Automatic annotation (TrEMBL):
The keyword Transmembrane applies. Residues 89-291 form the ABC transmembrane type-1 domain. The keyword Transmembrane helix applies. One of its GO terms (cellular component) is plasma membrane. CDD domains: TM_PBP2 (cd06261). It comes from Kribbella italica. This is Multiple sugar transport system permease protein/putative aldouronate transport system permease protein. Pfam families: BPD_transp_1. The lineage of its organism: Bacteria, Bacillati, Actinomycetota, Actinomycetes, Propionibacteriales. Keywords: Cell membrane, Membrane, Sugar transport, Transmembrane, Transmembrane helix, Transport. It is found in: Cell membrane.
Length: 306
């Protein structure tokens, strides 16, 4: 028994080759992680609470409510009553849907072409994609290109210039290159064209990476505001993020005419600002959980196989 006790004690002290932390270390880690979680969660809870609090409670609290006594949707009714925010929400939805669709088509077709050996211009085109990861064209040349194509003050100006990401092309190409060649070759032997192999075999086997890349593009289009700030002069074409920047970040006061509620009493500015912020966050929060399970398989597998 005396020979086994030291071995047992060593097994208790060593876990995975490392000594177990003491009780004091575990308490410190727990307190530290709890503080980090609170620093992340509490502001988000405050945004939700302020947007849902009654106008009287927001005024009494001085503009920021952490735990409201009740729920009031007047701020959301005001911003969704057909004014600037409603128009911006529709613009953002259009830009995100159309831009993501175009980006997925271009990225998947380019990634498929680069993953197939023997494609005409494969290596030079791949080199161009890799070089674009290292060198940015710059703000002024990009603006001049958009101007020359007549895209200024058009929604296409915030869709087409960012429609293809070199990083996403590399990820998709790596995933396509890792598909079983036996399946692809057998389809070609049966008489399938390259397009049919891509559409009926390549894409169905690559749903994970397509979902992840689609989420990347969708989040990028939804959160984009700088392109709209540069290329759009008509305020009716502003996406939601630019409206959010104008009314929340810059602190511009929102009037009744901006919300389509002329002649009506408006909730406090803080409530309206927090409601706009929540409207800009909710769509991503709703989409992300459905795509999250594809992340490890879609990105990590493609990166390793590349």
């Amino acid at each position: 028994m005396s020979d086994r006790s030291p071995a047992r004690s060593r097994r208790q002290v060593l876990v995975g080759g490392m000594p177990m932390p003491s009780m004091a270390e575990r308490v410190v880690k727990a307190v530290f992680l709890t503080a980090i979680c609170a620093a992340v969660v509490l502001p988000f809870v405050g945004v939700i609470s302020t947007s849902l609090a009654s106008p009287e409670e927001v005024v009494e609290a001085g503009g920021f409510v952490l735990l409201p006594h009740g729920f009031d949707l007047s701020a959301y009714r005001s911003i969704l009553s057909g004014g600037t925010v409603t128009q911006a929400l529709l613009v953002s939805a259009f830009v995100t849907a159309v831009g993501t669709a175009i980006s997925l088509v271009l990225t998947c077709t380019l990634g498929w072409a680069l993953s197939r050996r023997g494609t005409v211009g494969n290596k030079p085109l791949l080199l161009m994609v890799l070089v674009s990861l290292l060198f940015n064209p710059g703000l002024i040349p990009t603006y001049l290109v958009v101007q020359q194509f007549g895209l200024l003050d058009s929604l296409w100006a915030i869709i087409l210039p960012t429609s293809v990401s070199a990083f996403n092309v590399i990820v998709v190409r790596a995933y396509f290159a890792g598909l079983p060649t036996e399946v692809l070759d057998s389809a070609k032997i049966d008489g399938a064209s390259e397009w049919k192999v891509f559409w009926h075999i390549g894409l169905p086997l690559s749903k994970a990476v397509v979902a992840v890349v689609g989420l990347f593009y969708g989040v990028g289009y939804w959160n984009s505001f700088f392109g709209a700030l540069l290329y759009l002069n008509d305020a009716s074409k502003w996406p939601l993020q630019l409206v959010l920047r104008t009314y929340v970040v810059d602190g511009v006061e929102i009037g009744a005419q901006d919300l389509g509620a002329a002649g009506e009493a408006l909730p406090p500015q803080t409530s309206i600002q927090m409601a706009i912020l929540m409207i800009s966050i909710i769509p991503i929060l709703c989409v992300y959980p459905f795509v999250q399970r594809h992340f490890a398989k879609g990105v990590l597998t493609g990166a390793v196989k590349g």
